[in-house]
Amino acid sequence: MQALGPVNALYPMPTTLVGTVINHKINFLAVAHVGILNHGEPQYLSIGLSKAHYSNQGIITNKSFSICLPNRQIMAQTDYCGIVTGKNTDKSKVFDSFFGEVPGAPMISECPVNMELKLHEVLDFNTHDIFIGELVQTYADPSVLTNGKIDMAKLDPLLFDMASKKYWAIGQAVGDCWREGKVLKR
Ligand SMILES: Cc1cc2nc3c(=O)[nH]c(=O)nc-3n(C[C@H](O)[C@H](O)[C@H](O)COP(=O)(O)O)c2cc1C
């Protein structure tokens, strides 16, 4: 094994679009550093945003945000939201947006899956704000559902890899979780 130093090797991560409202204007930015903090209800999710970003103030003011899942059809628009800042560029018209139950959490009609969250806590890191949100509602386009559940093959999520700086697609399912290991059980 070769030591690489403290290289974060936890990729790929899903590419998401986080929605906020700042000064009455909708803004989206691309976010790949997302986390699942628990499994159950309430469900808590995290996003790590550089303090340099415009979006942070919208989340802090409205105490809410959205996490939207783009697919490869809207890769260019997604990437654009990760290149330009709402500080000097109006990103409110990049997508057709809609609101659900949580004011301040705009979502995206073109994204097959959208989640709206209430801000639960902010972890104040040196360079980043870690926003922990409580998931309030999830919206999915019926075209990505199989038996009422989100189907990875239909969703076609955009995966983000820092080392190659590329978007990746998922392959096929290769095994059953909580089942494959049973062959090693006595
Ligand atoms: C694919 C992709 C993923 C990104 N992930 C993150 C992230 O997890 N955290 C972060 O702080 N910035 C991330 N960025 C950078 C922001 O999206 C980018 O700086 C954006 O312009 C900030 O927008 P805002 O200033 O309007 O908030 C990412 C950019 C791209 C292209």
From TrEMBL:
<dbReference type="InterPro" id="IPR012349">
    <property type="entry name" value="Split_barrel_FMN-bd"/>
</dbReference>
<keyword id="KW-0285">Flavoprotein</keyword>
<dbReference type="GO" id="GO:0010181">
    <property type="term" value="F:FMN binding"/>
</dbReference>
<dbReference type="Pfam" id="PF01613">
    <property type="entry name" value="Flavin_Reduct"/>
</dbReference>
<dbReference type="InterPro" id="IPR052174">
    <property type="entry name" value="Flavoredoxin"/>
</dbReference>
<protein>
    <submittedName>
        <fullName>Flavoredoxin</fullName>
    </submittedName>
</protein>
<comment type="similarity">
    <text>Belongs to the flavoredoxin family.</text>
</comment>
<feature type="domain" description="Flavin reductase like">
    <location>
        <begin position="10"/>
        <end position="152"/>
    </location>
</feature>
<dbReference type="InterPro" id="IPR002563">
    <property type="entry name" value="Flavin_Rdtase-like_dom"/>
</dbReference>
<dbReference type="GO" id="GO:0016646">
    <property type="term" value="F:oxidoreductase activity, acting on the CH-NH group of donors, NAD or NADP as acceptor"/>
</dbReference>
